[in-house]
Every structure is written in structure tokens, then in C-alpha cells.
Amino acid sequence: MKTILLIAKDSVRALLHQRLLLGLMLASLAMTIFFSITLGAARKSINRSFADGQTATNSFTGTNQMSETDRRRFQDQMETASSAVQASFYQIASFGGSIVALFIFSTAVSGEIRRGTIRLTLSKPVSRAAFLVGKYLGGVVVMAGFAVITSLAILTFAHSQNVELSPAIKWAPWLMFCRQLMLGSLAMLLSLFMHPITASLLAFFAGNGFYSSPNPLYFVLPSYKDFNVFFQVLQGSLMNFRDVAFLSLYAIDFVAIMLLLALWRFRTKELV
Amino acid sequence: MAAIRTENLSKTYRAGLSGKDTVAVRALNLDVKEGEVFGFLGPNGAGKTTTIHLLLNLIRPTGGTAFLFDRPVTETEVHRRLGYLPESVNLHDYYRGRTLLDFYAALCGVPPASRAARVSELLKLLGLEAAADKVVSKYSKGMAQRIGFAQAMLHDPDLLILDEPTSSLDPVGRKDFRDILIELKRRGKTVFISSHILSEVESVCDRVAILQNGELKRVGTLRELSAGRSTRLIVKGLPAAVMESLAATTAQVTLIQGQVTIRCADETLRQTVEALLRQHDVEIVCQEIETQSLEEIFFSTIGSQPKP
Question: Alpha carbon of B17 to those of A239, A269, B12, B20: distances in Å?
Fold first, then answer.
């Protein structure tokens, strides 16, 4: 266990020194901020146009009162705009996170083999299993950090824009994190057979979203789409804890199976 | 107990459908005893590095088995007694020298209490004190090789496997390296060195093995390898009849200031010449086994000549 933690710590250190990864994270963050500002501005514009309309109505009727219908219409518009802002925010963060996850996990082991640094590490009393699990754990820590930053960004954004949080958005970072770990475990497994870029692309497009129930591929391929809560956030619908727990269990099982397959492959892989 | 033992160790790289398979190591039988400094020689592509990778379990053999301290190389625990310096030292370049060694020391199981002291000791021994807090990516090749050597010695292993350890070192570095090897030898450590620098191997190794095209050509001490090859017989006066008989053999006869020297290239020829001399009652004043330098042994083994 100590060895796994040492490898994981080293992996986190290595990832934080990767310029490409930092670039991806910054790009993802910049994209999120950009869209947040744009969407925030759109929301303000709705607010302003409503306020202008209200002023015009008040001056015409000579009252300061907003009618009940207008108030409801305004509230509906505001809620829709808020949900759209949150859903878009989530979608961007989720996509950016997936790219980061694919990059991290597909290069975690294959990068060490390519650079030749694995030779020194495995000449120490470090088993291949400990190395692989440690590398995965390092990636998990970085992705957890990314999920925390995303959650904080959502909260900060909601607070600054005075937006009421959609019920589903509360689970969104966790489900996004689970999805990224699934993507990552598959990308890591595939990177032991092929080039990391091919492995990443294959992992990303290997979801069962393109198939429906009678097709065997629907049951074999990972179900990423269930982890995407874009529509729940957009519609402001509730998510029950049982669904989230079930999805979490599915993700854990999936990751465990992928790691076991990766271990099986890595056990006999030539490392030079 | 053997520090390194291989039994018919083989490695063949399979080519695709169109290509030819490449035999990197062919039924290699090695036995490196504990406490000896063993030189592993061979021209480029002889299979030295492949053998080392097999010993480290970085690649899988296609035949045979390898053992370190009588345990299969696939056992991770046996690496507690092993230190390895690769030919090209690829380090985690985001570390500083000191933290890199600390990381490797932790992996080797060096207790935290003694880790800092051990790291400092090795940094000093390898002349890296001034660069200890420099980022490893800024290190020169020679410095990288030095720190690579330091990481191999962190846990004071019983066996050191060094692949071209001095290829990037300057003469001062080479001398320091040789001194360290001599000290390790004195302390009873086993050192397995693959090197192209024959003079270096000659000066420190107890035994050497010469590999060519993946095949073990010769193995033994320098004395064993050079012995029984060519012999010089010095005789007093040589009758014409003997001279004629010798002319029919491949023995080389030279006459300098009345002293005749007969050079016999191998043991069979020596026995023939001795019999001939005895037959004619020629007194053998002196008999010397010609010793060869490691370079001569190496080139005669691989069937090539050093370029002038």
C-alpha cells in the first residue's frame, strides 16, 4: 500500500508538471469562464428587457405594480435562463474534464514506458500491479481536484449571478467525476495496446449511446450517457439518491473490471 | 549462492508476417558468483542490454529462466537486493536532485529516519552536492549518469547491474567511478558491468563474459581467457633438422642474439613442438604463456581487429 501511495504521489507531481495538461486545464477553465460571462450577460439582458417592458407598461397604465401573469412569465424566463446557464456550465466543465481525464490516464503508464523512466522505478521493489494502481490513483486525485474546482466554480458562479441551483446540479460534479474515472480506466487499458491518442479517441467514442437495448453492444459498451445530467439540470428535475448510488456502483464496477484487465495486460507487457 | 544465474535464457523478437525474427539472446548460461565484479562485453547489438532487461524482468524471455540470488527474476522482492543503472539514464525530470533520490530511497524502503543522511552521503560521494537542489531536467549527461549511479546505490544493494556506466563521464568521473567500484568490491558486493570501455573492465573485473550475436562466446577470468592460447618457448641453439621440421608447422621462430624463440599459437602446437625438441635433445631454457590484454582477447573472440 505504501508503494502504491508513493507512486500515486509521484504521479500527481508529474501531472502537475505537465505543461500540456496545465494548458488543457486552463483552456477548460477559460472556456467555462467565457461561457459563464456570456450566459450571465444573456441572463442580464432578459432581466433588462423585462424591466424595460415593465417600465413601458407602468408608464402607460400609470401604476407601479407588476401583474401576476407578468411576474410568473418573468420568473419562468429567469428559471429557464438559470437552468440553461447551469446546464451549459456543467456541459463545458464535463467535456473539458473528460479531455483532461483521457489525457491523464492514457499517458499515465504509456508515457513512462515511452520516456524510459519506468525502468528505474521497476528496478526497485515495486510490483507492476502497485505501479499501475498507483498511477491510476494519482490520476484519480488530480481528477478529484478538478471536480472540486468545478464545484467551487459552479457555487461561485451561482452566488455571483444570484442563480438558484438546479436540484440535479448538486450531483453533477460527482457523476461527472465518476464518468471521467470510467473514461480514464478504459483509456488506460487501451493505452497498453495502442498509441495514447488512439486509446483516448476509442475510449471516448466507445459509449453505448449509439446503440439500443436489443443490440449486444448496448450491454457490453460503457454507459457514459447515464452520467450526463445535462437535461436534468436544464429541466430542473429532481434526481433521487438511489439513482446516483446505482450509477456510482456501476462506475466502481466498471473501473474495477478495467483495472483488472489492465493489470492482466501490464503483467506481461514488454517495458522497453 | 549465485547472484545471477541464467539457464538457456533466450529472447527472440518476432517480426511481422513479412520480416525475419531477430534472435537477441540465444540459450545464455551465466553464473555470476556473489562478491565478484563481472564484466559483460560484446559489440553493439550483441544482446548485452537485452540480457540486462531480462534480468530486471522488464521484458519476458522466449525461452529459459533467469534467477537473482536463486530466486526467479519475476519476484519483486528480490529487487530489494538489486541496484540498476541503465545505459541512458531517463529520470523524472520534474524533481530536484535531492528529492529524486529521496523518492527512490522511499521506494527502496530506506527508513525515513536515515533517508536524508543517505541521500546527502551519496550526493557527496558522487560530487553532486552543489547540484543537489537543481531541477534534474537542467542536469548535464554526466550529472544525470552520476545521479543515476547514486539512485542505484541508495539502499546499499548486494548486486549492482550497471549498463555502460561511464559512457557519459569525463576522465575525473571515470576515476571516481572506478574508485567506488573498488570500494564496493572490497565490501563484497556483486557488480555486473556491461561496458565498451575494455581497459576499465580489465582494471576492476574478476571475470568477464564475451557475447556476440546473442551467444556467449567466452567466459572466465582474464588469466583463464588468455591462458593456453599462445606459448613462447626459448631454446639454446636449434639444429638445422629441427628448424626444417618447425618450418612445416605454424610455429613462429625468431632468432635474436643467439637466442631462439618459438611461438606456438595454441596448446596442440606447443605439444608438437615440445615433442620435436625433446626428440632432438634441445634444451628448453624458458617457457612462457603469453598473456593477452582484454582488448586482444575481445577482438580475437569476436573475430575482428581494432581500427587503428
Answer: 55, 21, 15, 8
- Same structural domain, B276 and B216: no
- Per the structure, the complete domain to which residue B158 belongs is given by 2-222
Of the candidates A6, A10, A123, the beta carbon closest to that of B82 is on A123
Gap between the Cα atoms of A225 and B46, Å rounded: 54
> CA nearest B82: which of B189, B218, B173, B206?
B189
- Condensed to tens digits (0 to 9), the pLDDT of residues A27-36 reads 777 776 776 6
CA distance A117 to chain B (A): 5
CA distance A17 to chain B (A): 7
In a shared domain, residues B138 and B267? no
Give the number of domains in chain B: 2
Q: List the single best residue of A123, A133, A269 to mutate versus B (max B Cβ within 10 A).
A: A123
User: Average model confidence (pLDDT) for chain A?
Assistant: 82
Q: Identify whether B277 is part of a domain.
A: yes
A272:B58 CB<8 A: yes
Residue in B60, B76, B94 nearest the CB of A13: B94
CATH code assigned at B145:
3.40.50.300
Give me the pLDDT at residue A65, please: 57
Number of alpha helices (DSSP H) and beta strands (DSSP E) in chain B: 10, 14
Q: What is the pLDDT of residue B229?
A: 67
Let me know: does B239 contact B282? Beta carbons within 8 Å.
Answer: yes
CB–CB of A91/B66 below 8 Å? no
| ipTM value for the complex | 0.81
How far apart CA B179 and CA B52 sit, in angstroms, is 24
- Asked if B248 and B197 sit in the same domain, the reply is no
B49, pLDDT greater than 90 = yes
Convert the pLDDT of each residue in B148-192 to its tens digit.
Answer: 999 999 999 999 999 988 888 888 888 888 889 888 989 999 999
- Single out the residue in B204, B222, B240 at which a domain terminates: B222
Ordered by start, the domain boundaries in chain A are 2-51+72-267
pTM of the model: 0.82
Strand-pair partners of B216: B211
